[in-house]
Amino acid sequence: MADTAKTTHPQPAGRPEKGAEFGYVGIDAILEQMRRKAMKQGFELNIMVVGQSGLGKSTLINTLFKSKVSRRSVMPSDEERIPKTIEIKSVSHDIEEKGVRMKLTVIDTPGFGDQINNENCWQPIMKFINEQYEQYLQEEINISRKKRIPDSRVHCCIYFIPPTGHCLRPIDIEFMRHLSKVVNIVPVIAKADTLTLEERDFFKQKIREDLRVNEIEVYPQKEFDEDSEDRMINDKIREMIPFAVVGSDQEYQVNGKRLLGRKTRWGTVEVENTAHCEFAYLRDLLIRTHMQNLKDITSSIHYEVYRVRRLNENNTHPSDQPNGHSNGVPTHEVLSHEM
Amino acid sequence: MFSFVAGFRQVASGMSQSGEKGKFPEAAGYVGFANLPNQVHRKSVKKGFEFTLMVVGESGLGKSTLINSLFLTDLYPERYIPGAAEKIERTVQIEASTVEIEERGVKLRLTVVDTPGYGDAINSQDCFKTIIQYIDNQFERYLHDESGLNRRHIVDNRVHCCFYFISPFGHGLKPLDVEFMKAIHSKVNIVPVIAKADTLTLRERDRLKRRILDEISEHGIRIYQLPDADSDEDEEFKEQTRVLKASIPFAVIGSNQLIEVKGKKIRGRLYPWGVVEVENPEHNDFLKLRTMLVTHMQDLQEVTQDLHYENFRSERLKRAGRTVEEEVLDKDQILLEKEAELRRMQQMIAQMQAQMKMKPGDD
């Protein structure tokens, strides 16, 4: 056991040989065990994308995961027409990188915000998210339950803000106010290649102010910072959100390198160049650094809130009540005073 | 019409005005009324032109910037953009600003009618009522003035042209765009414009233009049609008209910031990856839009007068004849509608009561 730990975990310089040092037990080898187990099991990630039609949601997801995982790529016959009501469409893919397998589910919401009357357009989405929580809850309280409960809860909801350059619109505020209580919302400024740098900074400031005034807590939420180290990292992120992103799935030759970008007559926007747009920061946040944190907050905070509320509602034996009573659209007030 | 005849008589009797004797060659058969256009031209220049342009589109599409760029002026010096919270409360406003522009002795009194609040609300069902009412009011006022006794100084505030800003972020027209254009295409000349066109690559732009044109014809929306060049115009003008017609809807960018490019100061937008030039026809259709507007100002006014205004006028006068009978019918109609509404409300209340009884008691 000590041998395998040595080969995969490079020891810091100065560490004496295993077994020779008095006081070294070998507990840290558990990290390696967990790692191997996790790799065998694979990960699940459920991302929801919300925004008006044409803001580049599908393209951004494809760019994030460098593969064609969005709804558009999977159902090409689905024409670009605006549906009459909001639909919720889930597409799952198994992707792999360096031996790590991931089941990525992208949940798309075509029709959001596209109608003339968009009142309560957040309701079907809220209903869907609660249904996932409900499904998980039912599995969890089963008498004989599965070893690994399939996790279809939405870990992250990317909300696309159109780059008007002014401020948030009423529909943005409505949506984020309701949904930030049940899911992690990551707001992004879509199609940011239409804003100059000054306009971008001004817009971001206005958005942050609007969020503050309306008491909307987007990810990373201040109240869930665990320690000062977390807080420091997250404060830096909070100063940068919402990220101004540009998506592209086409490569162009720039300075001898092939890069993802958008080519126009006056220049090529490089997607992964942080001087051009903040796509790289978004990708790092969602995938490289905070992916596990997103899942943790979903399961230990948002889901727990839902669970407590549900279990209190049904004071009797919960398992003999069918899903009939699961509130598709819980009232906003109940949630907030429960918390 | 009668001024033409008076002018003809004057010229025929040999009296020329303001020393233009030299312009009349004493050839046989030459009467001299070919000089008439000059007289009309001079009179118009003295009188000046009036033009009312309405701009409609969602917030943040660059309407104000484009208007300022088009007319090289600042129509909105103390612009206040409301925050999100205020936007929730607002309804559509109509703001008209007038500016007098003079170029080479020609005076233009330009009125720009802005419609802030359009498309902002979550429920935009009523947002164009205000706009349609405004257009009708201008027609009404003109009709009233025209039928009045003193017709010397009729001020023409009718809306001659409406720039409708389409968002470049969608895949074509939104439901709101379609509904609005269908509601006003019989009242005003619509010129659709694709805003913030620097967010589109060339291919995306062409695709979007085609999509929009398809949807416009699919829904039967009548946008302003540029008249074909007359056969006696020169080739260059004909070509220009052809190019203009093929570029609708215009994909434009606006800016009033001067940026230095290759030693020259030009208007544009500076990005980390390049500079978009407003007046570069390869970058966007701004120049085409401006050309269209200035070469067709007269035609836009004519179509407003001959088509839209006449439609309004005949409708209005017909209606005035029928008001008495209609009023009675209307009252019955209103009564029926109110009863139906009452029944609906009662149903809703009954439903809500039933729901409350069913919920697991958590009071």
UniProtKB/TrEMBL annotation, chain A:
Belongs to the TRAFAC class TrmE-Era-EngA-EngB-Septin-like GTPase superfamily. Septin GTPase family. This is Septin 9b. InterPro entries: G_SEPTIN_dom, P-loop_NTPase, Septin, Septin3. One of its GO terms (cellular component) is cytoskeleton. GO terms for biological process: cell division. Its main location: cytoplasm. The keyword Nucleotide-binding applies. The keyword Chaperone does not apply. One of its GO terms (molecular function) is GTP binding. Residues 313-329 have a biased composition (Polar residues). The lineage of its organism: Eukaryota, Metazoa, Chordata, Craniata, Vertebrata. Transmembrane segments: none annotated. Residues 41-313 form the Septin-type G domain. Residues 313-339 are annotated as: Disordered. Pfam families: Septin. Keywords: Cell cycle, Cell division, Cytoplasm, Cytoskeleton, GTP-binding, Nucleotide-binding. It is found in: Cytoplasm, Cytoskeleton.
Automatic annotation (TrEMBL), chain B:
GO terms for cellular component: ciliary membrane; cleavage furrow; cytoplasm; midbody; spindle. Its main location: membrane. This is Septin. It is found in: Cell projection, Cilium membrane; Cleavage furrow; Cytoplasm, Cytoskeleton, Spindle; Midbody. It comes from Astyanax mexicanus. Belongs to the TRAFAC class TrmE-Era-EngA-EngB-Septin-like GTPase superfamily. Septin GTPase family. The keyword Membrane applies. Pfam families: Septin (PF00735). Keywords: Cell cycle, Cell division, Cell membrane, Cell projection, Cytoplasm, Cytoskeleton, GTP-binding, Membrane, Mitosis, Nucleotide-binding. PANTHER family: SEPTIN. InterPro entries: G_SEPTIN_dom (IPR030379), P-loop_NTPase (IPR027417), Septin (IPR016491), Septin2 (IPR008113). The record marks 169 as: Important for dimerization.
